[in-house]
Specification:
Chain A: This is Intermembrane phospholipid transport system permease protein MlaE. The structure holds two protein chains of two kinds. By secondary structure, chain A is an all-alpha fold. Chain A has ten helices and no strands. Classes of the chains: A mainly alpha, B alpha/beta. Chains A and B meet through helix 3, helix 7, helix 8 and helix 9 of A and helix 1 of B.
């Protein structure tokens, strides 16, 4: 009797794991198919560029404030923390290098992508999920308008365009924040701050690689948000769950991708 | 919202992004300083280059006059061949001395050029003959310890030896001329 209930519970657990794995794999495949279709039908989002432009406004421009304010604080904290450690080794002038390299290489693209997923990704998922719930997407299909070309692709390209712009802004504003703390507040030499930074930050290896990272993160974040919205069950609960999943999956994907990209970019 | 207002905002957004990227390139990166116009390339052989890397600066009298282009290993002589690009504006005599220095105690390494007195100047593809290797800290420390040890040995000898030897050791220490 006891043995049989144990037996059943083990089988149930295994079945649960299996069905979850199949579900994840199915979603990965469907997401990849949506990505491919988006690329195929993205002609319209360039021919009618107003569509994309409007989405750049709602994903990019509306994220400006959160990006600039958080970049400023991240830069200031970096300078404070960096100074605290560097001055023990008598090299507080290297604070400029520390702030610039950590922002341009890592924090700029990664933190921007995380904020982007929270600010713009959720909005995309909720919007498309609600479009699906209120059967606007089916109505489009009825009118022989391809919803992927009309709704998905412009949002995708808007995200891909916005991310590198936001990430470079984040790095630049962060460096300015670090400068404000390091030079007027702590009293690090102004010339040493900039000259050490310029001597150690390489345009190709650091800045361009950071921009490449942010483009990849832009593709990943936007595509995940679009797929979660497109795939959401057409109920209020389904849309809310899809929105949560967008943030969780985007953040994890960004961090994992960051490790992979960094290991490619740093020639160890 | 009116479409023209959206256009304006997106325009501001893109302009801000371009300005940030430009600022990163000019103010943060070394895009302006690493830009050397026309260059000529010379090579130099070193027995040990330390941790010299491609793109390291080439300095003369502290001024950056070029960059290290590539570093290869010559397996016939077991030497490192360092290719250097020097700005065309700065001609150097044929007997220029190439050293590998370290910026600061633990900083990055760079190639320092010290001009000789030859009338002819280095041309594209020439080879710098007079070179000095990078100073390896471990080697220097072991040399220092070795010389200290031999000094102690000679001190021991002078202790059990005669007085004249001790004075002789003292005179060399003072650097008196041997006459």
């Amino acid at each position: 009797m006891i043995k049989s209930t144990l037996h059943i519970s083990i089988i149930r657990t295994l079945r649960g794991i299996g069905s979850r794995m199949i579900e994840r794999t199915w979603r990965l495949g469907a997401g990849a198919r949506l990505f491919f279709l988006t690329l195929v039908y993205s002609g319209e989002s360039f021919r009618r560029f107003n569509l994309t432009l409007r989405e750049v406004y709602s994903t990019g421009v509306m994220s400006l404030l959160i990006i600039i304010v958080s970049a400023f604080f991240v830069g200031m904290v970096l300078a404070l923390q960096g100074y605290n450690t560097l001055q023990k080794y008598g090299s507080s002038e290297a604070i400029g290098v520390l702030v610039a390299l950590s922002l341009v290489r890592e924090l700029g693209p990664v933190v921007t992508a995380l904020l982007f997923a929270g600010r713009a990704g959720t909005a995309i998922t909720a919007e498309i999920g609600l479009m699906k719930t209120t059967e606007q997407l089916s109505a489009m299909e009825m009118m022989a308008v391809n919803p992927i070309a009309r709704v998905i692709a412009p949002r995708f390209w808007a995200g891909v365009i916005s991310m590198p712009i936001l990430a470079s802004l984040f790095s630049m504003v962060g460096i300015l924040g670090g400068y404000l703390v390091a030079v007027p507040l702590i009293g690090v030499d102004d010339g040493a701050f900039w000259s050490q930074m310029q001597a150690n930050v390489d345009f190709r290896l650091d800045i361009v690689n950071g921009v490449i990272k942010s483009i990849v993160f832009g593709v990943a974040c936007t595509m995940i948000a679009l797929f979660e919205g497109y795939d959401a069950p057409p109920t209020a609960e389904g849309v809310s769950r899809a929105t949560t999943r967008t943030v969780v999956i985007s953040s994890l994907t960004v961090l994992a991708l960051d490790f992979i990209l960094t290991s490619f970019m740093l020639e160890v | 919202m009116d479409r023209t207002t959206i256009d304006l905002w997106v325009g501001i957004f893109v302009a801000l992004g371009v300005a940030a990227l430009l600022g990163l390139a000019m103010k943060v990166g070394n895009l302006t300083s690493s830009k050397i116009g026309d260059t000529y390339s010379v090579s130099a052989a070193f027995e040990n280059i330390g941790s010299l890397k491609p793109h390291a600066p080439v300095k003369s009298a502290g001024v950056v006059v070029g960059r290290v282009d590539s570093i290869t290993f010559d397996s016939s002589k077991y030497e490192a061949i360092v290719k250097i690009n020097i700005d065309k504006r700065y001609p150097f005599p044929k007997d220029t001395f190439a050293n590998i220095y370290t910026a600061g105690l633990l900083g990055e390494q760079y190639v320092g050029l010290e001009a000789g007195g030859d009338e002819d100047t280095l041309k594209n593809g020439d080879k710098i003959i007079k070179t000095q290797d990078a100073v390896v800290l471990e080697k220097m420390i072991s040399q220092f310890l070795f010389s200290k040890a031999s000094e102690n040995k000679s001190d021991d000898k002078s202790d059990d030896g005669s007085n004249s030897k001790a004075t002789k050791a003292k005179s060399t220490e003072l650097g008196a001329a041997p006459f």
